[in-house]
Amino acid sequence: MTSACADYPFAAILGQEQMVLALLLTAVNPAIGGVVVRGQKGTAKSTAARALGALLPPGEDGGKAPFVTLPLGATEDMVIGSLDLEAAIANGEVRFQPGLLARAHGGVLYIDEVNLLDDHLVDGILGAAESGVNRVEREGQSRAHAARFVLVGTMNPEEGELRPQFLDRFGLAVAVEGAADPETRVALMRLREEFDRDGHAFAQRFAAQQQVLRQRLAQARRQLPEVSVPRRLLAFIAEICQRNHVAGHRADIVIERAARAHAAWNGRAEVTADDILAVAPMALLHRMRDANPDMPPPPPPPPPSDEDEPEEDEEDGQGDHKGQDDHTGQDEPPPPAEDESPQPPPASPPEDEVQAVGAPFPVRRLQNEGTDRMLRTGSGRRSSTRSATRQGRYVKSTPRRARDDLALDATIRAAAPHQRQRRQESPSPLAIHIRPGDIREKVRERRVGNLLLFAVDGSGSMGAQKRMSETKAAIMSLLMDAYQKRDRVAMVVFRGQSAQVVLPPTGSVERAARLLADLPVGGRTPLSSGLEETSKLLDQARRRDPHVLPLVLVLTDGRANAGLGDGPPHEEALRVAAALGQRHPQARFVVVDTEAPGMIRLELARKLALALGADYLGTGDLRAEDLISLAKEHQSW
């Protein structure tokens, strides 16, 4: 017998206490805004999400609560829903076509690899999860329906990050990793083997525990509206968020809602400091600037009134608060936020130098030149392109049917010349006779962001005349502009004997700033390794978005002196560069020569640019304004 017809019981999940608690709290109070689970493959992320659905109350039809998995290739209409305007025109009927959000009402909406989902879909889903209502507006028609569901997103950070503005809108976040204890790993294997051998018998073994969890969840949901938060603890929440420098007030609201859910889950009608301390790390993991949350001591309990004599158990209560202090510092440290920090640069020998980031500068307004004809998804403010979704500015119509995006005006114009003949052929009370050949769809334009990829020479020669400081200033200025334009930025650094992706594609200026500040210079120039690592990063970006148009800025003096093979390193680098340009024809390459000025110049970077098929900037052109202007020219690709 197999487990094909049985779901893995939630009660049988071993370990991953933070993930289990975050899922349960979101099930108690979906208004928390969902939970995103970050971790490597094989850490029970999907298993836990699917198992949670079995604990929820029955759906509106009395059956099992819905569990809806969002496919990566989902369209906006598939997710949000749409109005069948063809039926409205042809038959005089306004008919709503519900999407996945309507199907998920009362259950779980699960998004695997949420970091690979198109931004506009993530935006719509998070909006519905936060408000509990989904609104569909098409061609002057509007429809709203309840969309109260438990939102669970999982992601592997190695495959790319979720944009910070979307990550912040998830209520809770947890980082999971495989168990380090051998005994726990053995127990996990035995449980899984038992489940695979006979899933029904396995589920029956945990049936009693499952029922206890269902009843406890149902009771917590009923009790949630009655749970209160003392005013002094609201001030405690505000202090926690202030100490961790979170932007905005969403973290405060999420902690309050999650603490109320935690109190309801534990059968209490009033939130305590313990509830806040239990949920704060999950609300801060993806919002705080530091790696570990700074938890202030909880406020003391309110003093007894003059009419009441102090009792002995009040001292016990104070002892509990002391225990809370110990709890925050030792017993259960908050989960690490390793996924939020960029990878450190290669270890620096003592002779390496760390130059400060030069002063950033304002970026001139981007001027668009033409529109990209490729149909693209995504969002941003830099490049104008044809939209592959129903978002964007309506510019013209087409008879091609691909996205069910009806152009009502063009359809009526196409049908108008035939109205007299059609009324004679087929009398109808409809004012306009529409036939399939009249249907026109909208062609839309929108702006999207780009990928700016820096391949930075971190060898000793970059330290001459503070050139790394100037380069850092230019990169920082581009990052600030990229954030405003919603570009994604990545960085490869090559120095010593190898190259490393120190900044995966991201839109976070703060992460890049921390990286740039500590980026050292020193050692040899492994140019071939840097180019090969750049090629790998471009391959990953293209797998995520086949239509991505990267701009690659290679900042180096071209003096390759550490190769991959036994031949001359410089000749090897030219061969690798030629292969890189041929492998990625969709990318634009720019080589910025950082060779020091002087009477004798090798101009090896110029040869590199020729092999790569790249634009070339001489040493005198390495002014920040020129570098910014060159990046802007990539907008219309």
From TrEMBL:
Residues 451-637 form the VWFA domain. Residues 289-400 are annotated as: Disordered. One of its GO terms (molecular function) is ATP binding. InterPro entries: AAA+_ATPase, ATPase_dyneun-rel_AAA, BchD/ChlD_VWA, ChlI/MoxR_AAA_lid, Mg-chelatase_DI-like, P-loop_NTPase, VWF_A, vWFA_dom_sf. Residues 376-392 have a biased composition (Low complexity). The lineage of its organism: Bacteria, Pseudomonadati, Pseudomonadota, Alphaproteobacteria, Rhodospirillales. Residues 294-304, 332-349 have a biased composition (Pro residues). Residues 318-330, 366-375 have a biased composition (Basic and acidic residues). Gene3D superfamilies: Magnesium chelatase subunit I, C-Terminal domain, P-loop containing nucleotide triphosphate hydrolases, von Willebrand factor, type A domain. It comes from Magnetospirillum aberrantis SpK. This is Magnesium chelatase subunit D family protein.
